[in-house]
Amino acid sequence: MTALDLLLPPTCSGCGVAGTACCATCLAGFGPPARLQVPGVGPPVWTLAAYHGTARELVLAFKERGARALAAWFGALVAATLVAIGPPPWTLIPAPSRRSAARNRGGDHMLRIAQETDIATVAPILRLAPGVADSVGLTAIARKRNLAGRVEVRGPAPPGTTVLLDDVITTGATASACVRALRQAGVRTNAVLVLTSAQPHRPGQ
């Protein structure tokens, strides 16, 4: 515990209860991995929660509000999930952020989560080329056009079960563009894992 913790005790980013960055009740909102049917994304897609309620609040707190302590919590969830997705060794490829967004957040937020898993090799080989706009508010078609040809692969990925990691899936445009870019670079994506899934996706069989 630091002096800052004594002056400003942590509160749960999901519900506001004092004493921890994420309480057990809010953490329980992330269940076992559920398979999704996401058109246009080749490999299996798995999610840990729907993008609403406390799960949404926790993702936004980490992504946009500087709650960096949540990286360890999310990393533990991802590590536990990898066992259900495929055999070791695991390689996590964080979905890329726009450079300006990463600067505003003090770094790549998905890379930070991937590095907290401990049990997987992290391969931050994806980059977004200049010209990619913020996807908030864009239609599915606009999201696809926004990313077309703008996901770059920088270097090889280690062998093993390769998992693309992202925080939320909406239309599937980002996952599809990343998987396509990796395939063109000779990297096979075995699965896509997202912390949350926005509607209208429904769990598949």
TrEMBL record:
Gene Ontology molecular function terms on file: glycosyltransferase activity
InterPro entries: ComF/GntX_DNA_util-trans, PRTase-like, PRTase_dom
Keywords recorded for this protein, A-Z: Glycosyltransferase, Transferase
Presence of keyword Glycosyltransferase: yes
Family statement drawn from the similarity comment of this UniProt entry: Belongs to the ComF/GntX family.
Protein name: Phosphoribosyltransferase
Organism: Lentzea sokolovensis
